[in-house]
Structures are given as C-alpha cells and as structure tokens.
Amino acid sequence: MNKQVEIKRRRIIELLSSGEFYSGEIIGQHLGITRAAVSKHIRSLNDLGLDIYSVTGRGYKLANDVQLLQPEKIKKYMSGDMSNQIDVLNIVTSTNDFIKQNIERLNSGDVCIAEAQTAGRGRQGREWVSPFGCNLYFSMYWQFDQGYKVLSGLSLLVGIALCQSLEKLGIDGLALKWPNDIYFNNRKLAGILVEIEGQMDSACDCIIGIGLNIAMPEDVDGIDQPWIDLKQITEKNIDKNRLVGTLTETLMSLIPIFEQEGLASFLSYWARRDLFINKQVDLTMGKKLISGYCRGIGENGELLIEHNGQLNSYHGGEISVRAR
Ligand code: BTN
User: What is the mean pLDDT of residues 255-268?
Assistant: First the structure.
C-alpha cells in the first residue's frame, strides 16, 4: 500500500482510538483531506475488520477499544541493551513476507508486527484470518549459521517461548500441541509458521511467524477449527505492546540456548504442557495414518508414538486425538 495512504489511515485510527466521536470534517482537517476522502478511508478500514460506525450529526466512532502497537511502548518492556529493530506496520500482506522482502537489511532478532494482514498464511497453505487491531501478527528474523540441521525443533521452541511469554503476563492453563500450536481448553489460541530460506549446509535465514488471537471480532468468519482468544480466557486486559516486548525478549534469550543445545533443556517444560501426552492419537502424514499412544517429544522435536509396544518417532504430519 502507498505510504501516504498508510499514514493517513493510521492517523484516523489514532484519532478514533481516543474512544470519542469525530466528524468527517474534523478528521479531514487533521489530515488535510476532504470529507469524501475520509469516508473512503473509513470504508477501507471497515473492510479490513475494524468496526467503525457513524451517527448522523456526531460523526465516526470505533465500536470497540483498539490498542495500537507502538514501538516506543514495546521497547519499554525490553531491557535497555536490546537493539532489535521493530517494524510496526498498519496493514501488510503478511509479516512473514515483509521479513523476506527486507531480509538484506535485517539482523537476527529483528521483528515485524502489523495491525492487520491482507494475506496472512497458516501452515499447509491455510489462510490465517487477520482482522485489524484485534490480534497479534508477529514475525522475527533469525540467521542460523549451522544451516538446516539445527532447525528441527525450532517451531517447538517458538511455541515454548510464546507460552512462557503469556505465562509471564499471568495467563495459565495453556497447552502445547505438537508441532507448533498453543491451545486452551482444546481450542486453538495461537499458531506458528516457520519459513526457511538458504542452503542445506551453509547459514540459513529463518522467518518465525506467530499469530495469536487476542480479541477476535464476534462476527469473524473463515476459521475452520475450534478457536479461542485471550479475551475469553482472562479478565485481565492484555497490553499488546507489553506482550510484543516480552515475546521478543523471551525469543532472544531462548533461541541462543537452542542453537547451542537443541531442545534438551526444554523437554520437561514441554512435557508438562503437552496437549496429547499419553492419549490415543492419530497422526496423518499425507495419505498415511499412524495410530497409537502419544509419548511426548524427543530431543530433536520429533513426535513419539507407541504402537503395539514399539516406540517410533515422526517428524511431520498433523496430530489429533483419536475419535472414540
Ligand atoms: C498456523 O497455525 O497455521 C500458523 C499460523 C501463523 C500465522 C502467523 S501471523 C504472522 C505471520 N504472518 C503470516 O502470514 N503467518 C504468520
């Protein structure tokens, strides 16, 4: 999107986020544009999932509170010596794409977050529904010098970092679903999409994408599985900027440990939150179906399934609890 349009829409949201009514005329004066242009921007923002309504004679108002992402607030929640670059965007196709497009100028630990994604991606080619201002759409860049071989298990580590970050904000009762989802009460709260670019043996570029449901609009469509958001889990008002700061800091401290030692020191944390541990499960790998008892994960992030007394490990596929 054109930078000027992006700035104008951001400014409109900033004005409306005060919770007050603003007339088209006043908004137009703030932005130096006509009322008709204001109304066009408001329509586009509504199309992106932002609920702005208008009342004749009073103007526009946001139906729900929107807390905007703000780099200076995020930095307040990170220790002073951290120099990560944090790109905060209003609207982007996908934060993972933004990282890929800017990879040349990025350093390990740099982050992109957005208020909305127009082409958010989930695993296995699924869409990741990304309405404006409601959720977290976060991507971090990391370069792994040892190449692909250190990467099995990375998405599990990212799930652990997200889970720890939420726990630091007082949210308990979370479960980890292999390989990379966070659940609460058997419903999906967050998903992780790690994308990799580079050669087999040389350094490779990783894009760590995290989508977390914070306060989905009530009329959201397009999600094809049971889901939950933080608003349903906790009465606490989650500060998104604090969450981003905490998550960035947690990833920055855990990834170097993972680079040195793999998942070894995280296995007990996973085991305590494993959604399927000791349950009868089905693992679908393409057309293949493997059934047995889930026995947790191994040191390389592989899923362990016991069948007829034999323990086997699996590196890919989708796991579900066996229907009775
Ligand atoms: C999944 O569970 O299917 C993974 C979802 C990952 C979604 C995040 S949102 C931020 C980043 N940008 C994307 O386009 N996808 C990831």
Answer: 94
- Could you tell me the pTM of the whole model? 0.91
Architecture of domain 3-62: Orthogonal Bundle (1.10)
Which residue among 123, 128, 130 is best mutated to probe the pocket of ligand 1, counting the most ligand atoms within 8 A of its Cβ? 128
123 has catalytic annotation: yes
pLDDT digits 0-9 by tens, 276-314: 999 999 999 888 999 999 999 999 999 999 998 999 999
- Whether the bond into 179 is cis, omega within 30 of 0: yes
Query: Which ligand 1 atom is at minimum distance from the Cα of 136?
Result: 9
Domain assignments of the chain as residue spans, ordered by start: 3-62, 71-271, 276-323
CATH number of the domain at 276-323, please?
Answer: 2.30.30.100
Q: Describe the strand order of the beta sheet including 111-117 as a list of residue ranges.
A: 86-92, 111-117, 136-144, 204-212, 187-198, 181-184, 175-177
- In CATH, which of 3.40.1190.10, 3.30.930.10, 3.50.50.60, 3.40.50.720 is domain 71-271? 3.30.930.10
Catalytic-role residue among 10, 61, 123, 187:
123
Residues contacting 300, CB < 8 A, separation 6+: 152, 153, 262, 263, 315
Closest CA to 64 of 231, 236, 233: 231
Backbone φ and ψ for 14, nearest 5 degrees, come out as: -60, -45
